[in-house]
Design goal:
- The structure is a single chain.
- This protein is an alpha+beta fold.
- The chain is built from eleven helices and 27 strands.
- The strands form five sheets. Strands 1-2-4-3-5-6-9-10-11-12-27 form an eleven-stranded mixed β-sheet, sandwiched between helices.
- A hairpin with a 3-residue loop joins β13 and β14.
- α2 packs across α3 and α5 runs antiparallel to α6.
- The radius of gyration is 24 Å and the shape is globular.
């Protein structure tokens, strides 16, 4: 079977594979769990290679057909044997699919099984995007010294914070993914579900029905994982204790490389994993491109970088590794920049203050009354663009959103010079609401000379929250809102724009303002009257990381990377 001859054009820029790239396959290898459930795996073995190291992948998305390439089949011609196991309850593996809940236990049993096989030669790596990467994190701290390398993409060690972004329920992503995995278990589901799940989820989310009914409305039946997410929003019941592996990231001894996208739903938490590894004394690699979760453009870079990583750490050939561990694409500049670490050394945090009348700038706050708006959860403020699980997250023109009365817009004068914003973005806001329970959403946009206003990054915070601090007895709170990190050039002549609002529907569920449990929140609602203060005593600002020091290297981006 000559895999190399079937690579897509343009060709991957990699060394030629060994031999003719042929391999053999063993199908449906049984791995029995302690409870008697049998999980199935396929093993791909390169021809003519003695003692090949192993790459382990555990997935709920299928082992064959189109899924094979995403599972790492392209590594096999380069001298690696690949073991792909279907998660519990998927693609022939026994038991019931328990999203997030079985990956540690099942994965560790699989690792011990792997070590007992006569064809296992002492070292293995973990690979995978999204859920596959999460499955790898679930076992990484306990897999033993045989785990020599990890290459993970668009993923994180915990999906908890991604499910409740800033404390708000990530409605669209949660409903989309639950419907996707539910339908994949049906005939032809692997083909049709990715094409239709987001459309069904968005339609259900916009129906106005209670949150507890949307799984049935979208998928035709109750869906356990969706209901679990609703029921465990607070985390009080311990649901997330066995599903959150962020606390063990620093204990992972294997070298790790991570790849993500500026518009990916998991980017902030992937970066936290990188920082946890750095804090533990490791030197992880990090790549962030102009991609979103299902963007096909990150597929080939993921294979190239993973192959170089595996060759270095499993085959003793580091020649393919880049010199600088961090590589990020700067949108607006259309170039890749290489750094020693993230955030880039020499970055300066700069406050751009919100001004009355819609101004924004580096000059200090002005003594003017607060800006106000009203949020109506029955007509929630929509999101135009921004990270989404399925479909395109390409930046879009936000001018239709900016005409709404429930969106405050603050815009700088035209820039006299290019402004490179690279790193974590935050907002320091002084707010007051007539509702204890409410949301604040902040969005950063780039305004072209022709007026087009494209989203760069965004974030939100649901109140009450630990990040909110009273400033006195007048009910004003100081809140810190974390936006997605970014790498973006605001070009000379462009303007910087900030939105402040209280909704991003259906990406996050509308806050009803009642303080009721999340599962019943849609049954009654109240409007929230919001105030944003920006006087000298309450200097609300967006905090921009301004890149001042030159990177280690700058590489012009190929045309296919441009947005």
């Amino acid at each position: 079977m000559a895999l190399w001859d079937r690579l897509p054009a343009p060709p991957i820029r990699l060394p030629r594979p060994r031999g003719l790239g042929r391999y053999t396959v063993e199908r449906d290898l049984p791995v029995t769990m302690p409870d008697g459930v049998t999980l199935l795996a396929d093993r791909y073995v390169p021809a003519g290679v003695e003692r090949p190291p192993t790459i382990l992948v555990r997935t709920p998305y299928g082992r064959r057909g189109p899924a094979a390439l995403a599972n790492g089949l392209l590594f096999v011609p380069f001298g690696f044997q690949l073991v792909v196991q279907s998660a519990r309850g998927t693609s022939g593996s026994g038991g019931e699919f328990d999203p997030l809940g079985s990956e540690r236990a099942d994965g560790l049993v699989t690792v011990e099984w792997l070590k007992r096989q006569s064809w296992f030669h002492g070292s293995f790596a973990a690979f995978g995007p999204s859920y596959l990467g999460y499955s790898a994190w679930a076992i990484a701290a306990e897999a033993g010294p045989e785990l020599k390398a990890m290459s993970l993409q668009i993923t994180a060690s915990s999906f908890r914070d991604a499910a409740y972004v800033g404390g708000s329920f990530a409605l669209e992503s949660a409903l989309t993914w639950t419907d996707l995995t539910h339908r994949q278990q049906r005939p032809l589901g692997m083909i049709t579900a990715p094409l239709t799940s987001r459309r069904r989820a968005v339609r259900a989310a916009r129906s106005g029905r209670p949150l507890t009914e949307l799984d049935v409305l979208a998928g035709g039946a109750p869906m356990r994982f969706y209901q679990d997410l609703l029921a465990n929003h607070t985390g009080a019941g311990g649901y997330w204790e066995s599903r959150d592996f962020s606390g063990t990231v620093g204990e992972v001894a294997a070298p790790v490389t991570l790849l993500g996208g500026w518009y990916d739903v998991f980017l902030p938490w992937m970066v936290k994993d990188y920082l946890a590894l750095r804090a533990a004394g490791h030197t992880p690699y990090l790549t962030i491109g102009p991609w979103w979760h299902t963007d096909a453009r990150h597929g080939l870079p993921a294979i190239r970088e993973s192959l170089a990583w595996f060759r270095a750490h499993l085959q003793g050939d580091p020649s393919g590794l880049r010199v600088d561990p961090v590589r990020v694409y700067v949108t607006g500049a259309r170039e890749w920049r290489h750094y020693r670490e993230w955030p880039p050394p020499g970055t300066r945090q700069e406050r751009w203050h919100l001004h009355a009348g819609g101004g924004l700038g580096e000059d200090g706050p002005q003594d003017h009354p607060a800006s106000t708006y009203t949020f109506d959860p029955d007509r929630p403020t929509p999101a135009l663009g921004g990270p989404t699980l399925l479909g395109s997250s390409r930046p879009v023109d936000n001018r239709p959103l900016e005409r709404r009365p429930d969106v405050l817009v603050f815009t700088s004068p035209a820039l006299a010079a290019d402004l490179d914003v690279i790193g974590p973005v935050g907002a320091d806001l002084f707010v007051r609401s007539d509702r204890e329970h409410t949301d604040f959403v902040v969005r950063l946009c780039d305004v072209d000379p022709d007026g087009t206003s494209r989203n760069v990054c965004e974030g939100g915070l649901r109140l009450p929250a630990a990040a909110a601090k009273p400033t006195g007895t007048d009910g004003v709170l100081r809140i810190a809102v974390d936006l997605w990190p970014t790498g973006h050039r605001f070009a000379r002549g462009h303007r910087v724009r900030v939105h402040v609002t209280s909704g991003a529907h259906p990406k996050v569920a509308a806050n009803p303002g009642t303080g009721e449990p999340l599962a019943t929140a849609a049954t009654r609602t109240v409007r929230a009257h919001q105030e944003i203060f920006h006087d000298p005593g309450h200097p609300s600002a967006i905090i921009l990381p301004i890149a001042e020091r030159s990177p280690e290297a700058i590489v012009p981006a190929p045309e296919e990377d441009a947005l």
